[in-house]
User: What shape does this take?
Amino acid sequence: MHWQTSRYLIDLSRPQVMAIVNLTPDSFSDGGEDSGPLEAIGRCERLLADGATMLDLGAESTRPGSQPVSVEQELARLLPVLDGVLSLGCPVSIDTNKPEVMAAALGRGADIINDVRALRAPGALGVVAAHQNCGVCLMHMRGEPASMQDDPVYADVVAEVSGFLVERMGIVEDAGISLGRVVLDPGIGFGKTPSHNIELLRRQREFCALGRPLLVGWSRKGTLGLLTGRPVHERQAASVAAALAAVEAGARILRVHDVAATADALKVWEAAGRLAG
Ligand code: HH2
Assistant: This one.
């Protein structure tokens, strides 16, 4: 299975490590690490050396309770880093839900739009459709980041998330975006309780059956804190375990903070698969 993006046709026969690069002062687990664009670009180089196969740049936090930032602020954080990483030889994804930011980033050469709103913001669909071949990640989110964790209720979380993703695939295809450009994400922690998140992992194969590759982001999230009793910076082992469980259940792209640990774990997982096979 492949993923068409602006500059790269990504082969997903092996799981890919998408490195999270938060350019925000308020991200829930790694905000404020970089003091400027040059430091952020240097961090991206290290993430690639550690085994990342793509970068996901985000300049607006979407953690539970976070507040939106203006287009100008998001672009001011994003574009200097984007310009610096486009020459690093890997697909560059932009984590944004604003059509203006999507248009500017795609105009500069970004490969992928990773949208936690699945192109639902007015104008977003048109921006991505107007681009010939950029990739897009459609993620499920119930509600808004500011309030999405206020007691979300589902009759069957897997069925409802699947239904949403199928509907979004139909809408993007009708807008002229071929499905070869699309990957799907159940949106761990976005309007879901810990038991919903665990159910999404237990029954993850049902999302694989939707016909497009699955991207998942378990890294350092609250459900892992609940399972282990650990604060956000002590969730590396839990994050790697969740990533491997997701790969075992068919996920093909892992959105992670702890790149080296995840890449090492994948090497062992792949070797074990070869031995077993
Ligand atoms: N999670 C976050 C942000 N973007 N995109 C996708 N496709 N899937 C996810 O699970 C996902 C995402 C939240 O995590 P993080 O980037 O670490 O935090 P913040 O939004 O505070 O920057």
Remarks:
- Residues 20, 22, 24, 27-29, 58, 61-63, 95, 114, 116, 137, 139, 185, 187-188, 215, 217, 255 surround 6-hydroxymethylpterin-diphosphate (CB under 6 Å).
- The CA atoms of residues 72 and 95 lie 15 Å apart.
- The mean pLDDT is 94.
- The chain is about 40% helix and 15% strand.
